[in-house]
Amino acid sequence: MSSNFKITYSALNADLTQLHLEFDRVYAQVHSEMGREIPSMINGKAVKTGVLNKKYNPAQLNELVAAYHTVTPAHLDEAFAAAKKAQKQWAGTPWQERVRITQKAADVIRSRKMKIAALMTLEVGKNRMESLGDAEESADLLSYYAQQMIDANGFIRPLGKLSPNENTQDTLRPYGVFSVLAPFNFPMALSAGMAAAAILGGNAAILKPSDDAPGTALELYEAYQEAGLPTGILQVVFGHGPALGQAMVSHPLNDGVAFTGSNAVGMSILRTLNAGPFAKPVLMELGGKNPTFVCETANLDKSAQGCMRSAFGLTGQKCSALSKIYVHDKVYDAFVEKLIAQAKAVKIGNPAKQEIYMGPIINEKALDRFLLAVKEARQIGKVLHGGQDLRSRPEYKNGHFIEPAIVEVPRTARHFTDEFFAPLIALTRFTDLSEAIDHANTAHYGLTAGIFTEDKSQIDYFMNHIEAGILYANRQTGATTGAWPGVQSFCGWKGSGGTGKGGCGPYYVSQFMREQSRTIME
């Protein structure tokens, strides 16, 4: 099969022999170039401050992937000043030109997807299929958002008349400069999607990527440079995450924020940015505590595979990952047996290897959080499978490797309310679907949810009563995961989002602009 084949998070059974051979070739090249220094990119210049943060491979902690130059407050001032100046001209650039540049950047990303994916695997420990999916999604996000501009005629439309000589036009106009704060788990797709929407809307974007993915962010910057984006419209700054992010949000020239991350940080950004004399936009996708319901009529083989893939893909480090399963009492034992069999079959190790499904967790802090949750489960319930720290084994000693966990705990446990961002599933029984859904809805979050059943009335009830923004029924490829641009809108409800309109969906780009009515009398 050609390496042009598109990998999504739902790819299961295609013949990918040639694609794997090409990935191996490119990965070897990228691996040989590790250890380089990565500058921040400010006003079209590579900025090397000499103050370096080092990024190591989470699967091989003795491998330095890169060292990136961190910015000073003066550099941040320069970035915002450059963005403010460039944005004024960019706002007046015809929307068709903004679309053309974005579409070209998407093409560049597609042409470099193997390199981007290989780098991603090294930086954040995603297996090759997940890394390729991330790169593909990045390009599709740019294309999809560009198409939104085309379909909406640049968000320009005529309005009604009160008199014959009155002509009114409604248009959406940019806010100015957006700070784009991206996480590690989808380092290309989330950076690309948030930045592209801002840029298409006529804004400038200053991207602060995760400390764990500096090289991936530079790939996005270079794709836009090759596409001809004017200087200052996209800049990339590196620094210690919380401190630099706070400085960007609080900067007087900052006009808005696009953020993906935890609920606590997102709400802090919202309060900080809107502490001034007027409101500024904060577009955010936050955490999740995502349930799946396995009903008495469910296909248990499909259910078990869908739950495993959703919970343990990317080592559970997705805001959309499945973390709690409500299983009907009649099928509980049979389902648990199949789920444990699926978990036992998960291949753990260096994600650069073709056969590996689950790579390392991102860092020691995340590993400790997972182990504490497993310890608590043992104290108040049962660990049905896994939960081990694998670093004592020779083959895992150089990385942050853990064994995925399946636990059975009381519903009062925090395993049903707190986001662990780790490969851990909490199980509980139910006999009444409406009661189970009511319990799931007590969680602070409302991101994704899934159900497995052959009863259409149960699907209808689930769709109409679960409090979450992305819903799936009978999805074997991922019970609660796998959203794709233009296919599944990705919108968090309650504590999982901020605007009620999410990425990957048809209303995203318009949120980076504000409405203006223009009446001209003849």
How would you sum up this structure, described in words?
The structure is a single chain. The chain has 2 domains: 17-286 and 500-521, Aldehyde Dehydrogenase, Chain A, domain 1 (3-Layer(aba) Sandwich), CATH 3.40.605.10; 290-484, Aldehyde Dehydrogenase, Chain A, domain 2 (3-Layer(aba) Sandwich). Helix 10 (300-312) packs across helix 11. By secondary structure, the chain is of the alpha/beta class. The longest helix is centred in the first third of the chain and has 24 residues, at 128-151. The protein has a 7-stranded mixed beta sheet with strand order 15-16-17-14-13-19-20, sandwiched between helices. A 5-stranded parallel beta sheet has the order 10-9-8-11-12, with helices on both faces. The protein has helices at residues 17-32, 73-91, 95-111, 113-124, 128-151, 189-200, 214-227, 241-250, 263-273, 300-312, 332-344, 364-380, 433-440, 456-465; strands at 36-38, 40-42, 45-47, 52-57, 60-69, 156-158, 166-174, 177-181, 204-208, 234-236, 256-260, 282-285, 290-294, 322-328, 382-386, 405-408, 424-430, 445-446, 448-452, 470-473, 493-494, 513-521. 38% of the residues lie in helices and 21% in strands.
